[in-house]
Amino acid sequence: MTTADGWARAVRERVGLGRLLPLGGVGDGAWITERAARKVLLGAVSAVPGTRVEGLRIGPDGSGGELRPVVPPPPSALPPGPLRVTADFAAVADGPLPTTAGRLRAALAGAAHGLGLEVTEVDLRAVGLLEAHPVPGPGTAHGSGERGEHGGPGASDGTGRTSGTDGTGRTGGTGGADGSGGPVAPAASRTPGAGQPAPAGAPAPAPATGAPEPPRPAPAGEPAGSLADRAGAAALAVPGVSRLTSVLGRPAQVAEHHPTGAAASLPRPHVRVELAVRGGRCAAEVARRVRGAVADALPDHPTVAVLVTAVD
Q1: Domain 224-311 fold
Q2: Are 246 and 274 in contact (CB under 8 A)?
Q3: 111: exposed, middle or buried (C-beta count within 10 Å: 0-12, 13-18, 19+)?
Q4: Using CA atoms, how far apart are residues 88 and 116, in angstroms rounded to an integer?
Q5: Closest Cα to residue 165, out of 249, 239, 96?
Q6: Which ranges in the chain are annotated with CATH 3.30.70.1350?
Q7: Which residue of 63, 88, 237, 308 pairs with 32 in a disulfide if CB–CB is 3.0 to 4.6 A?
């Protein structure tokens, strides 16, 4: 990790953004903050009555299936690859815990795929029993139990800790919607990535042999501010984009990079756009359209990366 990557990670943790998670597959060039994704997933489980979910995290599934992105990613963003959702939950003892876990797992997996996250595992751990159905507090969705970016197992207001089907308190690893522990079904629109066969005739993705060369300052010519303004306007005009954001810097930043990472290659313009997506829209699909719109709006057809920082 470079000094710049370490600084960027520290800033993200300070403002509570969490990790920058890949959206879609290796060719999509899009990322979403963990905070934005968590908000959507916790909203989904709020529809499961008699439950409280805490300490929800999203990260790599540990299989080592990361791939090299086709465009320079935001600083220290996770590479494209399969993800795992982990969370603790407490539930009212009005039914089998594996059944309740199955409902939560289905809600989380569905919300993740609706965003465009390549989630292959949803790992839940039962940590307690609730004496009654939780009542949502001010500004908190029913059953969400959101406690912050690094929340761990929360203290239950129930009668004690419970163990799962393996005796450790876990109710499943990859887990299916029926609580049987089967794999999470992928969404029909998933982009081929790690662990998925590519369509016939499609080129194989490049192995994760290194990150693309970091972008350099904008090239001479049209002022970078003018190009950035044009990029932002093109992004804002895409259906599904609710607003531009500036969490990591300007809403649109223009730089240049060498596509192959070699100093002898010709530099190419690169744009990173930061935005919020409207609720109910597939963030990965919106990001793909933004990439196309921005590339068409600027000279030299630059590469484009999109960072979704909020879902409104």
Answers
A1: Alpha-Beta Plaits (3.30.70)
A2: yes
A3: buried
A4: 23
A5: 96
A6: 224-311
A7: 308
The answer to whether the Cα torsion of 148, 149, 155, 158 is positive or negative is positive
Q: Is 118 left (phi over 0), alpha (psi -120 to 50) or beta?
A: beta
C-alpha 9, offset from chain centre = 15
Count Cα atoms within 13 angstroms, Cβ side, for 85.
30
Instruction: Indicate the helix (H) or strand (E) that contains 99.
Output: helix 97-115
- What letter would DSSP give residue 209? S
Query: CA 301 to CA 294: how far, in whole Å?
Result: 8
> In a 10 Å sphere around its CB, with 0-12 CB exposed, 13-18 middle and 19+ buried, how is residue 77 labelled?
buried
Q: Tell me the pLDDT of the chain (312 aa) as tens digits.
A: 566 666 666 565 556 889 999 999 888 999 999 999 999 999 999 989 999 999 999 999 888 777 888 899 998 899 999 999 999 999 998 888 899 999 999 999 999 999 999 999 999 999 989 886 655 544 344 444 343 333 333 333 333 333 333 333 444 444 443 333 444 443 333 333 334 444 444 444 444 434 444 444 444 445 556 899 999 999 999 999 999 999 888 899 988 766 655 444 566 789 999 999 999 999 999 999 999 999 999 988 899 999 999 999
